[in-house]
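== Protein entry: sequence and backbone fold ==
=== Local backbone shapes as whole numbers ===
==== Amino acids and backbone structure tokens ====
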Amino acid sequence: MLTLKELKKVVKVAGMTKRVPSEKALEKEEIVVKEILSGECDITVYANGYVLYRENGKKTIFPLHSCKDYQYMDVKEDRSIMNEEFFDNENWYIRLLMEATDRMEINQTKVASNHRLVSYSDYADDRILLLDPASDFLDQYIEKEMVRDFLGCLTARQKEIIQLFYFEEMNQEKIADYLGIRQQSVCEMMQRALSVMKKHADKEEN
């Protein structure tokens, strides 16, 4: 049995500041290990450090080494944590499967609000849900890795949150815990920051 600890030793750490590759791009990469869980579900780890999980026509891609501690809600609805070491000697795909199914569930969540929300699973962290006005900016500029060029137009706190999200691969919940603020505040500041960055990007284009 290949363990997760053994797998992490032989697979390179994916570049954290780069865009997550597409499924098509991964086809060119060497497969390190693959598990077919059912006829419509499989999980694959590639030599470049990324994991591809597919289920019933849907997919999610994420860095192998981003799978560390696992947070979950217990039966009492209290937040609990399973430490990274817990999974080290388990079958390699157990922790990855938990990560993948969580990401798939979040990506498919429909949020009822005055704005239509979209999920960006192709970028550094596919857990984030962003408002549509920022989506054009994300499609155009995150893909070209130009976020850094517009950090100077943000406040210190906005810049910190954007850096934690895009370059440290922290999701909203982790950023909120790290900064000691509410997750809703993180979401709102990200939206304002992206709006400011979009305006500056538009000015440069005109």
Notes: The chain is about 40% helix and 20% strand. The longest helix spans residues 183-205. The two ends are 58 Å apart (CA to CA).
